[in-house]
Amino acid sequence: MLHIFCPHCGELRSEEEFHAKGQAHIPRPLEPNACTDEEWGDYIFFRDNPRGIHHELWVHAAGCRKYFNATRHTVSYEILETYRIGEKPTVTEATVGEKKATTAGVTA
Amino acid sequence: MSQVNRLPKGGRVDRSQPLTFTFNGENYQGFAGDTLAAALLANGVDIVGRSFKYSRPRGIVAAGAEEPNAVLQIGSTESAQVPNVRATQQALYAGLVASSTNGWPNVKNDVMGILGKVGGGMMPPGFYYKTFMYPQNLWLTYEKYIRKAAGLGRAPLEVDPDIYDHLNQHCDVLVIGAGPAGLAAALVAGRSGARVILADEQEEFGGSLLDTRETLDGKPATEWVAKVIAELEKMPEVTLLPRATVNGYHDHNFLTIHQRLTDHLGEIAPRGQARHRVHRVRAKRVVLAAGAHERPLVYSNNDLPGNMLAGAVSTYVNRYGVAPGRQLVLSTNNDYAYRVVLDWLDAGQQVVAVADARSNPRGAWVEEARARGVRVLTGSAVVEARGNKRVSGARICAIDLKNHKVTSSGELVECDLIVSSGGYSPVVHLASHLGGKPTWREDILAFIPGEGFQKRHCAGAVNGVFGLGDVLADGFEAGAKAAAGAGCKVVEGSMPKTEKRKEEAAVALFQVPHEKSTSRAPKQFVDLQNDVTSAGIELATREGFESVEHVKRYTALGFGTDQGKLGNINGLAIAAKSMGISIAEMGTTMFRPNYTPVTFGAVAGRHCGPLFEPKRYTAMHRWHLEQGAEFEDVGQWKRPWYFPKRGEDMHAAVARECKAVRDSVGILDASTLGKIDIQGPDAREFLNRVYTNAWTKLDVGKARYGLMCKEDGMVFDDGVTACVGENHFIMTTTTGGAARVMEWLEIYHQTEWPELKVYFTSVTDHWATMTLSGPNSRKLLAEVTDIDLDKDAFPFMTWKEGLVGGVPARVFRISFTGELSYEVNVQADYALGVWEKIVEAGKKYNLTPYGTETMHVLRAEKGFIIIGQDTDGSVTPDDLNMGWCVGRNKPFSWIGWRGMNREDCLREDRKQLVGLKPIDPNKVLPEGAQLVFDPKQSIPMKMVGHVTSSYMSSTMGYSFAMAVVKGGLKRIGERVFAPLTDGSVIEAEICSSVFYDPKGDRQHV
Amino acid sequence: MQQYSGFGLFKHSLSHHENWQRMWRNPTPKPVYDVIIVGGGGHGLATAYYLAKEFGVKNVAVVEKGWLGGGNTARNTTIVRSNYLWDEAAHLYEHAMKLWEGLSQDLNYNVMFSQRGVYNLCHTLQDMRDSARRVNANRLNGVDGELLDARQVAEEIPYLDCSKNTRYPIMGSTVQRRGGVARHDAVAWGYARAADALGVDLLQNTEVIGFRKQDGAVIGVETTRGFIGAKRVGVVTAGNSGHMAKLAGFRLPLESHPLQALVSEPIKPIIHSVIMSNAVHGYISQSDKGDLVIGAGIDGYNGYGQRGSYPTIEHTLQAIVEMFPILSRVRMNRQWGGIVDTTPDACPIISKTPVKNLFFNCGWGTGGFKATPGSGHVFAASLARGEMHPLAKPFSIDRFHTGALIDEHGAAAVAH
């Protein structure tokens, strides 16, 4: 069971108080009507789903009811930071230096 | 026969407290302090069960959690039955009733055993994959017989009389295991001021120190144990948990401890006590001091009763004063095993011989044994046990370890007990629950915990440290590190002095060679509980199962209730050997929780029965009960479904309730609808964005119906929202959707539009709502309110504040029945009084309470939808023919607008909500009936929609339904057919979904 | 291929089982294959088998990073059923069901497919409506299904608490009698053995670390054993599909979540069918070994750790004890987790991709095992022809742009 630091409450609390709400930093297009079906579909359905560093949205549902972001590793489940909505993560795939196979990717 | 194997003295049992118990119907006696296994051995019980596959007789092998055979059924009454209790972990209590789980007619003389001997050859691993295939339709028959052999014990057939509870714990240091390393760690951590939990699975703390020959500070080790426990008990921040198994190591240092609070007292917990408790622990640091399990050697017939682990026999002798035999043979590859020889001699028993696989063992204990006259055969091993239902002899041969060969014809010695030790396997289970891979160390022939990213420290045998002095030092160090890691200032103590002794390394020996090839030698068991043999493992690798996981899955190695604590390492050593690779290359399988099995009830805790999930009641619930209402579960709410009068069934009650509303007036408890108070200067703008329709022009005092969609354009909630003030609205949601909508509003406000000044407060429980509906509702309400109800003063879709029944109220003139209606909202704690006043005043109008069923009929007659019944997450407002509720020209692209304009949502032939009138007006279409245009087509039929709501209307005198039909809005007047499961077909005409009072005159009066 | 039978078993017992052949070879990769399947789980192996057997494509390799059948095939709760609501899903799963019936004989490997019935309990009026809708749809689609009332449920399922005093009293149930369970590992092994016999190369311990492309088309895979060329590549990697898509340079509408399950200690058979409840949120069956096999919903966060959070296990057992109070004293032996790739509509993706000749079969979420033969069959057909099989067409990635979703959340609400 995860132990999550709520940046609003300033406390480490158990996962049972929280709900995971999927990938973070997916802003709603400012002009939805200008989006193609494909762009709109990408916005509502397509996700990064990384195996590694993931920036995700959580809500302290049984606590302060506030949303916040977390940077979490999806294999080790380690939470590297939590931060408020509107703030940028300080830990990213680039800063952690996730190299190896994950970024080897396409070769031609 | 009375305790034939009980030694005249010794052991930690209380001989002044004899306890009688029953095993397989016979009465026996043991002592307080015995485990059930110790008591059975004391009484000379050899056979405790029959093996799973071959029905071979089996006896007790071990003394702890690793025991594979003594897995018994416990319980004297039906409701107290517990299957698969390990006798080695069950404390004896007076009146304990136990029995074997297999064997017919009994375990001593089992008919299946003969079958096992004859048919065993037909049952190599995976035999069932290779047969029982033909003919195809017979598998269920074959399986019926296969299932007869399934399982060990049985579930009780009556409900558990016991309760279980949970305790959330937070600590600085959780120490797992109270052997020498754990005690040392707990002591240092405790002295350093850390909040410590020390948990151990056994009845007593001390672990291996409880039966060791070694001394601490020159005194028996148990004295040191007692001293340490006394000191720990005095520390206010230290919690000691005996009979408490740490069974799972979860993320972020969350661990679960399964504590058996009363199992040592009896089969049912004393009144008022919980039987088990699960501690849910969040630990800053963990010290894993779980020890090691001794590995048996794998030789022929090593499953006969009378084959035991060397260390287990020491435990039975020293801790319980029980000698499970007379003449002992030891087969080993290491020094530590010699302790059993010395213990056995001290107990006055005979040691026949020691077969040591090493060519020239010269360790201190070996020499001590030799000095006491023990015959030590070097370079040798027991290759085969002899005997029928109990060991009667052992064949000892010289062996060539390198070439895995028997090199002498050997000798057959007479004995009744063969004990073996192939080394020690650290209990790495908990360390790998989170995926940490154990590491093989060739120098100690063991897997130790691999790198872990958790905040844990391993100490003692689990770390591959076996000498007592080293174990204690390791424990002290781990305790200090853990305390420091948790932020404490470490206070070191002094270590007890241990004996120095010459030790010699073990040699690698897992499967003992036999003159015959593995496949032809008498069976050599690796996993006793699942009857997995070395031949079976070799067969698996021969057939291409080369990964350790494949071997495990194909042979069932390690899948028993002991999870392969004895057999896994031997099994993978045999697999590695047969493939010509090293154990390190082979690797081990991953361990998963639980370390040992945990009672379902304990995991569930108190959240069972009445506490499974809370029930929500409205303020008027008591009144509904008094009126004999039937209730419907809606979300967590209990809502009155209908109010039957004496002798009425639901149909009669609903017909009466409907008529009352249409003719006079009815009253509905609508308190369960979600209510959200929305305030702020941008509240109106926010509503514009989350509702499909426009809110800009809604004046104070007015109310409006709104639809909510997801970004994909699909309807997900609806309700009426009223403007209370320029910056203040009250929103209603569906009963089941209240929490969902609240979270929906919050996520958009907090993540997308934080610049909007608006706040949301759930007020569902603050307000109780009673709906008065029917032509007489105005007259009735007028009698209990000071509000001017004149139709011009208080028109449809507006609301007013005033007193109702003498209590401040908000009254909304909105209607879900199509009749003149008022929804009266009062503070919940006044609501019952107000309700009763209205009921009293309503008598002269035949005021009739109605429930959800009548509400459903009345709203359906009007074509009003119910979210979740007429919608399913795949319909847009246009599909519902509710285009009037879509603000196509709102400036802001509100939630759902872009989604409902995607290609597929604009198709003309989408399923659309329409009304259906069965051609036979007495036939009610079943809800959920599928619709087709052509009932004559063959299966699979082309389905064009389904019935979402369907009723008999007593008002209109005919049946009617709401349905979604492909392109239905353009098919008004056409026919559809509902082919039903009974083979009949109901024909219906597609019509408007508004059946009653289509112009809406009645609600506007 | 050595034929398996009861007689063969007897014959081999006379030679102490020393002459059983390998079930599959351990081949060295060829430089190029007609089709490479990435992922050696049940679906991948089934795809390879049907490619070779039904569609004449025998120059096929299955590339597996670990051991065959080591992913969700090894971790599921073995339930097979086809009673899905929407036509597209029902047809696909029923296609699988028909292949299940006869699979042991087809593969000459007993996958122990046991049609002991699958019950979905109803606890509310809306459950009853939804169930009626599903059963009616099933029957008109040629899928068997019945709707039972509370009395029938009590008669058919012993020890289920059908009393009125439970939190959500049971009002009825659907049952698909052709549904049941199968021996999960055997499915992978049976397909592997049969595919190998037809010449398919099963490459274990070979991880794909990239896709090589030329002119927008895939021409092979980079692996830990070097480059292997292919005319077409089919990716069937379940929880790792998102990761594979990333390697190939595009995104999928997938999220990988932990899905947990647990088994009790083996006890004498007491649960004779598969019983699931969406409302109480748990399901249970009993294996031929006697283990109660239990599961429930997914964990809410993304995770590739093959483990989830403990409260999910607690809720699951609370549900089981609520349904079967007599099981309270039975003990949980083991728990574990798999990685399920969930889509927004709880239906799979069987589709072409933005990369030519690269096909994906993923997104089975909690429904993968039961679809194994059908999924393999339609994917094989699609890979052989380069055109999607008609049953696979509705499951294209495009639907997440057009909006033509097939929302099976109702049928898949409890993971199974």
TrEMBL record, chain A:
A matching Pfam family: SoxD
Gene3D superfamilies xref list: Folate-binding superfamily (3.30.2270.10)
A molecular function (GO) term: sarcosine oxidase activity
The organism's place on the tree of life at top rank: Bacteria
GO biological process assignments: tetrahydrofolate metabolic process
NCBIfam families assigned: soxD
Name of the featured protein: Sarcosine oxidase subunit delta
Automatic annotation (TrEMBL), chain B:
InterPro entries: 2Fe-2S-bd_N, FAD/NAD-bd_sf, FAD/NAD-binding_dom, GcvT/YgfZ/DmdA, GcvT/YgfZ_C, GcvT_C, GCVT_N, Sarcosine_oxidase_asu
Domain SoxA A3 residue range list: 522-605
A Gene Ontology BP annotation from the UniProt entry: tetrahydrofolate metabolic process
Domain FAD/NAD(P)-binding positions: 172-482
Keyword field: Aminotransferase, Oxidoreductase, Transferase
GCVT N-terminal domain segment(s): 620-890
Annotated Aminomethyltransferase C-terminal domain residues: 911-997
GO MF entry, a single one: sarcosine oxidase activity
SUPFAM superfamilies in the record: Aminomethyltransferase beta-barrel domain, FAD/NAD(P)-binding domain, Folate-binding domain
Similarity section: Belongs to the GcvT family.
Protein name in the entry: Sarcosine oxidase subunit alpha
Organism: Pseudomonas linyingensis
Lineage summary: Bacteria, Pseudomonadati, Pseudomonadota, Gammaproteobacteria, Pseudomonadales
From TrEMBL, chain C:
Keywords attached to this entry: Cytoplasm, FAD, Flavoprotein, FMN, Nucleotide-binding, Oxidoreductase
EC numbers for this chain: 1.5.3.24
Domain Rhodanese: 35-79
GO cellular component: cytoplasm
Pfam entry (one): DAO
Top-level class of the enzyme under EC nomenclature: oxidoreductase
Cofactor (UniProt): FAD; FMN
Catalysed reaction equations from the record: sarcosine + O2 + H2O = formaldehyde + glycine + H2O2; sarcosine + (6S)-5,6,7,8-tetrahydrofolate + O2 = (6R)-5,10-methylene-5,6,7,8-tetrahydrofolate + glycine + H2O2
Cellular compartment(s): Cytoplasm
GO molecular function (one): nucleotide binding
Gene Ontology biological process terms in this record: tetrahydrofolate metabolic process
Lineage top rank: taxon: Bacteria
Gene3D superfamilies reported for this sequence: D-Amino Acid Oxidase, subunit A, domain 2 (3.30.9.10), FAD/NAD(P)-binding domain (3.50.50.60)
PANTHER family in UniProt: FAD-DEPENDENT OXIDOREDUCTASE DOMAIN-CONTAINING PROTEIN 1, SARCOSINE DEHYDROGENASE-RELATED
Family: Belongs to the SoxB family.
Protein name: Sarcosine oxidase subunit beta
Species this protein is from: Pseudomonas linyingensis
Phylogenetic classification of the source organism: Bacteria, Pseudomonadati, Pseudomonadota, Gammaproteobacteria, Pseudomonadales
